[in-house]
């Protein structure tokens, strides 16, 4: 196993680094931020944003060509060989798939985020590894960071190459560094002549890194005279002397993914290849993910659509006890869940993508919510598909085909989707990230009250300042338009769901305030509570998206109108039950008991409980300590619930 030097960092240093790297201002409105503050700003998402006619036509024309090519690709070849054939990659390159979002002036297709999402859905439905190949290249690889922070010279040098098919990868994670970038060991040492940097270190889980032509490498520049220092981003030619791909990793799913371990030893990188300034690397990575995270819900939505197709076909033709299995209530409930949730997944995806394209809203929370919710719900859908298919759901597609049955890879879907709850921020990390963002206004108002290191005098002063904010804000959480029966009447039967969303947004805002008063600075350790608040917000966001999408379809008057209302209504009824359970669990839970038991487990008090089994992994390799939430991926960044008096947030 490749190793590298370890860098120690205190908890406070880790916090300071991530807080310094996050965007602290809100120049544009945010629907989700307002919702977490108890303000239901329906006007920010309704009418449901739609691409222009020109953009829609451009996207549809491209998707038509893409679909025709994808119909010639056999995804089972990728699954069986654990490799994407070179001719498939070449075909995608010839179609411009590696430049979907790259502007036309740099040789790309210039698709919108909505169009890009639809292309990923198509590609990912053939095999998930194809979707990962394209999204890792464009969402977090060279194109997106350059679009956001690159110079014009860098864009003209690298973007045309990327658009033509020069595959790129993002190298952040290290063997001993996952969610905690403060411990990053890779270095970028300025050369004596000042014209370059020498990069050294080991990077782990480098998606596309095995076959990449271009790399985005995160490394630490030492602070010195004339150098700002800090974690910085570099564009690196993958064939540079000193770069070694040490292995290609294998996983439970995504059998065609080119993910490996890359070692860099004194790799000379020209100064002109520094993206942004020294020390801006982490901020660039976090900003990139605001839109980059939408690639995951795109592929999750594709998986849900396929699951619905397979589940409905099987449930209508498979007869048991004299009736199609779908007519039995136990199976019918699963079908209803899959159909309703698929509608909501697409609604949240398209809404987030359209808001990204319009650039009138700050979507950092919406993108994170979409990623978190889609990755969790798509896994639930895939599990239900396996259950509906029974033994055939557990059997591989290859085995089914070998005995003459339809090659339905339901079990493969479960394996392929599972990584999405880890990719680009594990669900646990996403909840902490969203919690930090949703509490921004409170951090600005409360200041030292939620700072663990503040003394009594500072807390007393902060209490006086906070009283003004809460005196105006808290009364607004008691009543609102959602309490009036006639509100949102234009939505017909869906109006009651929007009233529910508004009432619950105020309730979760009150709950957060109660928690801050109760636990103050210790709230950051109440990750179970914070996670439930975020999950409530995710459900409310999905409900809002489903309702406004259904209303848009009804207004358009197409064949989907009636069905969309039924799907949205059923989804909201299901989501309401989940929201109510989450609210109950805010205060009635086992969090304290779990914490106590966990402490004893970590102290080794229950070794006796582990007896009676064998561990085949004993002696097979070194243990590598990961952060508390387990292995991270390229962008699984530690973003805890951080107290800060530096935050400036619009309220």
TrEMBL record:
<feature type="domain" description="Acyl-CoA dehydrogenase/oxidase N-terminal">
    <location>
        <begin position="78"/>
        <end position="165"/>
    </location>
</feature>
<dbReference type="InterPro" id="IPR009100">
    <property type="entry name" value="AcylCoA_DH/oxidase_NM_dom_sf"/>
</dbReference>
<dbReference type="GO" id="GO:0050660">
    <property type="term" value="F:flavin adenine dinucleotide binding"/>
</dbReference>
<keyword id="KW-0285">Flavoprotein</keyword>
<dbReference type="InterPro" id="IPR050741">
    <property type="entry name" value="Acyl-CoA_dehydrogenase"/>
</dbReference>
<dbReference type="GO" id="GO:0005737">
    <property type="term" value="C:cytoplasm"/>
</dbReference>
<dbReference type="InterPro" id="IPR009075">
    <property type="entry name" value="AcylCo_DH/oxidase_C"/>
</dbReference>
<feature type="domain" description="Acyl-CoA dehydrogenase/oxidase C-terminal">
    <location>
        <begin position="279"/>
        <end position="438"/>
    </location>
</feature>
<dbReference type="Pfam" id="PF00441">
    <property type="entry name" value="Acyl-CoA_dh_1"/>
</dbReference>
<keyword id="KW-0560">Oxidoreductase</keyword>
<feature type="domain" description="Acyl-CoA oxidase/dehydrogenase middle">
    <location>
        <begin position="169"/>
        <end position="265"/>
    </location>
</feature>
<dbReference type="InterPro" id="IPR037069">
    <property type="entry name" value="AcylCoA_DH/ox_N_sf"/>
</dbReference>
<comment type="similarity">
    <text>Belongs to the acyl-CoA dehydrogenase family.</text>
</comment>
<dbReference type="InterPro" id="IPR013786">
    <property type="entry name" value="AcylCoA_DH/ox_N"/>
</dbReference>
<dbReference type="GO" id="GO:0033539">
    <property type="term" value="P:fatty acid beta-oxidation using acyl-CoA dehydrogenase"/>
</dbReference>
<dbReference type="InterPro" id="IPR046373">
    <property type="entry name" value="Acyl-CoA_Oxase/DH_mid-dom_sf"/>
</dbReference>
<protein>
    <submittedName>
        <fullName>Acyl-CoA dehydrogenase family protein</fullName>
    </submittedName>
</protein>
<dbReference type="InterPro" id="IPR036250">
    <property type="entry name" value="AcylCo_DH-like_C"/>
</dbReference>
<dbReference type="InterPro" id="IPR006091">
    <property type="entry name" value="Acyl-CoA_Oxase/DH_mid-dom"/>
</dbReference>
<dbReference type="Pfam" id="PF02770">
    <property type="entry name" value="Acyl-CoA_dh_M"/>
</dbReference>
<keyword id="KW-0274">FAD</keyword>
<dbReference type="Pfam" id="PF02771">
    <property type="entry name" value="Acyl-CoA_dh_N"/>
</dbReference>
<dbReference type="GO" id="GO:0003995">
    <property type="term" value="F:acyl-CoA dehydrogenase activity"/>
</dbReference>
């Amino acid at each position: 196993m490749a190793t590298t030097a370890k860098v120690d960092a205190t908890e406070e240093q880790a916090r300071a680094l991530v807080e310094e790297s996050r965007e602290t201002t809100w120049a544009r409105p945010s629907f989700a931020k307002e919702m977490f503050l108890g303000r239901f700003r329906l006007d920010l998402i309704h009418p449901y944003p739609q691409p222009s006619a020109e953009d829609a036509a451009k996207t549809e024309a491209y998707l038509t060509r893409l679909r025709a090519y994808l119909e010639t690709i056999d995804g089972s070849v990728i699954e069986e060989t654990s490799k994407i054939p070179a001719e498939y990659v070449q075909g995608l390159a010839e179609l411009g798939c590696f430049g979907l979002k790259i502007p036309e002036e740099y040789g790309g297709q210039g698709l919108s985020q909505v169009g890009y999402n639809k292309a990923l859905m198509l590609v990912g439905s053939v095999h998930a590894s194809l979707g990962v190949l394209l999204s890792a290249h464009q969402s977090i690889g060279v194109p997106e960071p350059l679009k956001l922070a690159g110079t014009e010279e860098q864009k003209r040098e690298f973007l045309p190459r990327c658009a033509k098919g020069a595959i790129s990868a993002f190298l952040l994670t290290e063997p001993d560094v996952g969610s905690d970038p403060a411990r990053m060991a890779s270095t970028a040492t300025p050369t004596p002549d000042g014209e370059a940097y020498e990069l050294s270190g080991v990077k782990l889980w480098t998606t596309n890194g095995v076959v990449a032509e271009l790399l985005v490498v995160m490394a630490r520049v030492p602070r010195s005279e004339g150098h700002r220092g800090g974690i910085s981003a570099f564009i690196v030619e993958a064939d540079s002397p000193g770069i070694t791909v040490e292995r290609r990793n294998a996983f439970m799913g995504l059998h065609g993914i080119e993910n490996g371990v890359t070692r860099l030893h004194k790799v000379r990188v020209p100064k002109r290849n520094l993206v942004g300034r020294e020390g801006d690397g982490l901020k660039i990575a976090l900003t990139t993910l605001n839109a980059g995270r939408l690639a995951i819900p795109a592929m999750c939505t594709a998986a849900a659509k396929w699951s619905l197709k397979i589940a409905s076909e099987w449930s209508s033709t498979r007869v048991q006890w004299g009736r199609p299995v779908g007519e039995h209530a136990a199976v019918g409930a699963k079908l209803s869940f899959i159909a309703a949730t698929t509608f909501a997944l697409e609604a949240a995806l398209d809404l987030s993508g359209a808001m990204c394209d319009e650039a009138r809203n700050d979507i950092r929370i919406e993108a994170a919510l979409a990623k978190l919710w889609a990755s969790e719900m798509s896994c639930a859908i895939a599990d239900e598909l396996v259950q509906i298919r029974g033994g055939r759901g557990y059997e591989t597609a290859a085995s089914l085909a070998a005995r003459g049955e339809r090659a339905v890879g339901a079990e493969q879907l479960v394996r392929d989707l599972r990584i999405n709850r880890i990719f680009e921020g594990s669900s646990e990390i996403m909840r902490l990230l969203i919690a930090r963002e949703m509490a921004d206004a409170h951090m600005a108002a409360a200041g030292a009250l939620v700072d663990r290191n503040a003394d009594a005098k500072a807390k007393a002063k902060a209490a006086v300042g906070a009283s003004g904010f809460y005196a105006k804000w808290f009364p607004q959480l008691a009543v609102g338009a959602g309490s009036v029966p006639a509100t949102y009447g234009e939505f017909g039967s869906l109006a009651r769901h929007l009233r529910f969303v508004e009432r619950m947004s105020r309730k979760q805002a009150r709950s957060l305030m109660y928690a801050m008063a109760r636990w103050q600075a210790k709230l950051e350790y109440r990750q179970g509570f914070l996670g439930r608040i975020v999950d409530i917000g995710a459900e409310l966001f999905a409900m809002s998206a489903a309702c406004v999408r259904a209303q848009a379809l009804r207004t358009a008057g197409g064949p989907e109108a009636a069905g969309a209302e039924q799907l949205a209504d059923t989804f909201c009824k299901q989501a309401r039950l989940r929201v109510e359970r989450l609210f109950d669990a805010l205060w009635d839970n086992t969090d304290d008991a779990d914490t106590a038991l966990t402490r004893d487990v970590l102290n080794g008090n229950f070794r006796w409980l582990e007896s009676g089994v064998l561990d085949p992994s004993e002696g097979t390799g070194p243990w590598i300590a990961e952060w508390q939430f387990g292995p991270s991926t390229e962008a699984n960044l530690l973003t805890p619930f951080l107290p800060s008096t530096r935050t400036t947030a619009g309220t």
